[in-house]
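Slides due. Your pick:
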Amino acid sequence: MDRHVRSVSGSNTHRTSTDRRSFLKTSTAALAGSVLLARGVHAGGDERLRIGLVGCGGRGSGAAADALRADPHTVLTAMGDTFSDRLESSLNNLQKQFPADRLDVPPDRRFVGFDAYRHVIDSGVDVVLLCTPPHFRPQHLEYAVAAGKHVFAEKPVAVDAPGIARVLAATSLAKSKGLCLVSGLCYRYDLPKREIMARIHDGAVGEIVAIHTTYNTGTLWLHPRQPQWSEMEYQVRNWLYYTWLSGDHNVEQHVHSLDKAAWALRDASPVSATGLGGRQVRVQPEYGNIYDHHAVVYQFDHGVKVFSFCRQQAGCSIDVSDYVMGTLGTADLMRHEIVDRSGKRIWKYEGPTPNMYQQEHDELFAAIRSGNPINNGWYMANSSMIAIMGRMATYTGQTISWEEAVDSKEDLTPPAYEWGPAPTPTVAMPGITQFA
């Protein structure tokens, strides 16, 4: 079989199978033409860009602050969250950081509930920040792009393969409309990472033979159950611990590491994934149904392997690192240095290091103003799908091919988005849980 296919980013790289091309056909069609953003209402530097925030947790509040700092003529005009206390806390925090003329969010533009995103998007905003739990990203992105809004979308962009398909369709539509779509995979906007990746792509480490990527951390927050909360409310407030909401931490957190690996490989998609994982320490019912550790080996074309590890366990060593190993040397992505095969440093980044979270928004709003849209949709979908594929492998104990992963019909959508009773998801058991 002919073993080549275009990558999600549109560059050429070696991969396998005709079926993997089908994952990209939406993006390929979109890349066939170039559409410039209309230089109309918001092309002038002295005009307001109205921002709507969907998802008012810590990351959403941070994104809103970054957006307001990115352009002096941005104004936050609408906010939405499933919970009123989160929205009000976010607004109060932003009011301490910015003058009143940058925050125009009266009570009638503060929306609460599962449909809050629709009201924010329909309120007359120009730019939408999508910062809810990942499960909701595909439907929110679809609605925002259909409404003609520029989007900042936090990572990851979906928790299952059907969600990824929706994101790819929205990405293509955004391209055709000349809309900006900037991803929260923030390392892509880190200047030291850009420089070391450029050197890797220019051959500084030779031909890549393997990548070792690790995201081992401690435990994260947990909101204790309250008597007045329904089961659905408990799960949404503690979304990290439910696969249907977060995708598991191999998807929600470790996607950053997998994105860097994919980036080094010019956004190739893997041939297959084999992994192991489980709940060893974080086993109490309040921690939902996600694992506390994953180890996945991704097989790429030409024998390249990505060795991927992540862990969320208290009292263990912390290690967030990425090594790109080639025939001439190794690149340490987090230390921004390259060594030759003898271990001698041959390059280290010495340039500026602006805040990468701020850089995302600086470039987003500059692109809107200039009329030259940014669209990160294909690589954010590819990297999210790689992370989902890894979870499929660890949950089932099976080797999963890329074709199987992207064609999966597993849809983690709950029976209904409403407060009250909700199914208690079961914990996956490798060798017993079936691939769907």
About this structure: The chain has 14 helices and 17 strands. Residues 1-22, 24-46 have pLDDT under 50 and may be disordered. The chain has two domains: 49-187+357-376, 191-352+385-406.
